Every structure is written in structure tokens, then in C-alpha cells.
Amino acid sequence: MTTSPDTTYRITTPRVVRAEWIKLRTLRSTWTMLLSVLLTIVGIGAIAAATATGAVEGPADGGGPGGGDALSTVLAGSMLAVVLVGVLGVLVGAREYSSGLIRSSLAAVPARLPVLWAKVVAFLGAVVPVVLSGVLVAFVVGMAILDGGGVTTVSWSDEGTARVVLGTAAYVIGIGLIGLALGLLLRSTAGAISALLAGVLVLPTLAGALLPDAWDGLLKYFPSNAASAFTSVLPADSLLSSETGALVFAAWIVVGLIAAAVALTRRDA
């Protein structure tokens, strides 16, 4: 008698992560978005640095990308990159609901929570190298342009430089994770993108302009304001300290992922 080989496969975390990674990397839109993020961070930073040196003519009103310090100038591209990464996070979280593929994913992994963690790992595996290399290249290229134009620059060893550069990368990636959580919570790409842009990125600025000063103590705990505490060279007095801001921003990410986990395990697909 011969026995047939055992062809059953156990559901393991590495296999679930591999499945999510395959779904992510086989979509052309993923690579288009990642390339756009990289070009945005480096390209806008280089343009802002060239504008600061006078090599490129800026707007007539004196505006344009970047701020008053060298770091804000070379990292100006992160302002748009945070939107792109946030949208990519939403797509990772909500895209399967519009196509119905989420039913197949949850049928293959009945425990459900491994699907969430696998999406997070796959998303970080794709985004972290791109964003981190983008801000580092933008820093090196931007500072070289500023130095060539005779503008004051900063070095990596200067106080606060590493915190701002790496903190900017963490902010961009963190907004992407919040977008992923919103995608799973709302199950709608359009709704989650709207909630991310309006609630996370626009509302703090709008509320700060419209609400009385008595609300300033609450507004500094919004995700974008908390991130400003560790992505600014000299944070304003109205912001949290850099350490507290990092903890508050991390708490927003954790709360969002926990809410997504609860929704994923308790609601029908």
C-alpha cells in the first residue's frame, strides 16, 4: 500500500504576510505611488533649496515650498508625500472591500487578526525603505544645493537635525498606518481618504484658525500638531515637547489599529 503525501498547509503568520505582500507588490498602482512618494520628497526638496539660493525664481509674493530654516526647506516635499502615503495606506486597508476579495482573505484566515498584522507588515515593508531613503537623499541633495548657493546649512551632527529628519519620515509613515486603519474601519476608499484628509490633516489647521485660544491646549494633541512637535527644529511654545509629541502621535496610531482590529473581528465581511 502507498500513502499519499500530506498536502495540507497550516496557516502561519509568515504565510499570511507573504500573501499580503504578493497582493501589494503585484499591483502597478503600488509601485506608481511609491515612486511618486520618492520623487516628491526629493524633487520638491531640491526645488525648494534651489529657490532659496535664487537659482530658481520663486513666486512673486515670496511664498513657495519650505520654511525659514534649512531643514524645513529641504524637507518641504514631505508635506505632499504625507498625503500620498496616507492614500496608499487607505488603499491597502479598504481596497479589498470594494472588490469583494476580503471575503476570500478572511475565509483563508478565519482568525482575521493575522490579516490585519500582515497588512501592516507588508505596508511597512514597502513604505519604510522608500520614505526613509527619500528624506535622507532630500537632506543630502538639498544641503548640497544650499551650500553651493551660499545659503546657511546644517550638518547631521548638529543638534536636532537627526530628530527632524527621522521624525519627518516617522510622521509620513505613521499617517500611512492611520490611513490603513481608517480604510479597514470605514470599508470605503473614498470615505477613508476624505476622513484622513479632513479629520487628520485639515481639521487641526482649520480649528486653530476658527476656535478661540482656550482650545489651543486640546488642539496640540491632534496627530498633525503632535507630529509638529518632533518634526520642527524649534517647536512653537503652543506645541508639546518633542518627546511628548512623539508619544501622542504613536498613541493615535495604536488606537487606530486597535479600533481596526476590533472592527475586523466583530463585523461581517
What is the straight-line distance between the termini?
A: 45 Å
Q: Can you tell me the residue ranges where pLDDT is under 50 for at least 5 consecutive residues? A: 60-64
User: How is the biggest beta sheet arranged?
Assistant: none
Question: What is the count of helical runs?
Answer: 11
Tell me the layout of helices and strands.
Blueprint: H1 13-25, H2 28-53, H3 70-74, H4 78-99, H5 101-108, H6 113-148, H7 161-186, H8 189-210, H9 216-219, H10 223-231, H11 242-266
Overview of the structural elements:
With 269 residues, this protein is mainly α. The chain has eleven helices and no strands.
Entry summary:
The protein is mainly α. The chain has helices at residues 13-25, 28-53, 70-74, 78-99, 101-108, 113-148, 161-186, 189-210, 216-219, 223-231, 242-266. Helices cover 73% and strands 0% of the residues.
